[in-house]
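Just curious. Invent one:
>
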Amino acid sequence: MGSKSRFTGVLEVGRARHDDGVRRLVESFHAVPAGEPVRLAKPTSNLFRPRASSSSPGLDTTGLTRVISVDPVARTADVQGMCTYEDLVDATLPHGLMPYVVPQLKTITLGGAVTGLGIESTSFRLGLPHESVLEMDVLTGAGEIVTARPDGTGREQALWRGFPNSYGSLGYAVRLRIALEPVQRYVELRHVRFDSLAALEDGLARIGESGSHDGEVVDFLDGVVFSAGEAYLCLGRRTDEPGPVSDYTGVRDKQAVYYRSIRHGGPAGSVVRDRLTIRDYLWRWDTDWFWCSRAFGVQNPRVRRFWPQQLLRSSAYWKIIGLDHRYDLGNRIGALRGEGPRERVVQDVEVTVDRCAEFLDWFLREVPIEPLWVCPLRLREGAPAPGGTRPWPLYPLAPDTLYVNIGFWSSAPIEPGMAEGAWNRRIEDEVSRLGGHKSLYSEVFYSREEFDRLYGGGHAASLKAEFDPEGRLPSLYEKAVGTR
């Protein structure tokens, strides 16, 4: 990781080519007839909720998929909105830098993580992806390019604060300038075992507050819950110290699966150490899409032996999921085995750390899904926004508060007489009871009143009126909930 990027001219496209890409995007926007839906023509997506079909060709994003430039002195990068984190990381790591927060899947785009909500193991100290945005150019629903920034005019600042969690209801980011932080060559890992949910909650709160454990600094923090009596926190420390590294990418060891390496049979508080290169650490979950590759049989040693290494990645599993969505393959195969239909339960929720054990206990008793991912987060901004509002009104987390993201991605059996979305509705009710939120990348069943209470309803409406007055883009509620 030197000072000069070997990707210059490959991933870094320069401002002139970027401006040409923006011009083509804007022209394609104005070519969509009035009354026709406006959507992006993207080759990848990380959404699990249904999408409305459209005959519209979509906006031309082909010139907006790269890094414009990296400034290693200022520790910033100018990045096109449809650039994937895989390409972004490949452009910044040679400078010894990384984005503040790198979501787990390689095909997530920077614009997608900002307009949605990204999270990862740096979020307990560096917040969410949109908090590292210094400024961004947004193609609004009115067809204009607005540069949103925290110190801009009232309108520019309103868009900068209102864009996170808007999911394309206000417009699309075409350029983002983000802050970067230094990294080192390796991440030294400690997998610490907990034998109760209360102890896990205490560990999350203590380490999330102090940034250390047993006298050793913690730069990265997440964990896995396998059962009420077996959970782990994965503590990462940046280092340049030489030493052997593990490989969970399938290059050297086809059978190695990261989440399985976390488990060990020691007593509570016992530690197993591991070490990864920084790049392999950032993508440790992508190889097996956390643990979801087991649903496709890829963790079966006999299948994995013949599974191409280049297909050990989340984008390959997405193609299978796309076929399942289209043809209901999972339930068709289950029927051949004599199994009943299943409801997809793919969600990430946030509760404050003091309600974490309570939610986990309820979930493990009531919902037949495991393991669960846990990841603490705290907003970087220490003070409310002007006027006493929360810093990010469409996902109003409280400042100076540690939350825990809990992710679960599987399915549950549909029992006779169950209503549509029964499992997801039960989870939504419990999260609301505990004062939490859930991310909107998957299916949502909230009533309009509940949705508006949780996701800045009145504020969302005023932003919509300002930046998409003719309603060319669906509202946030229409995007997330649809016609339910």
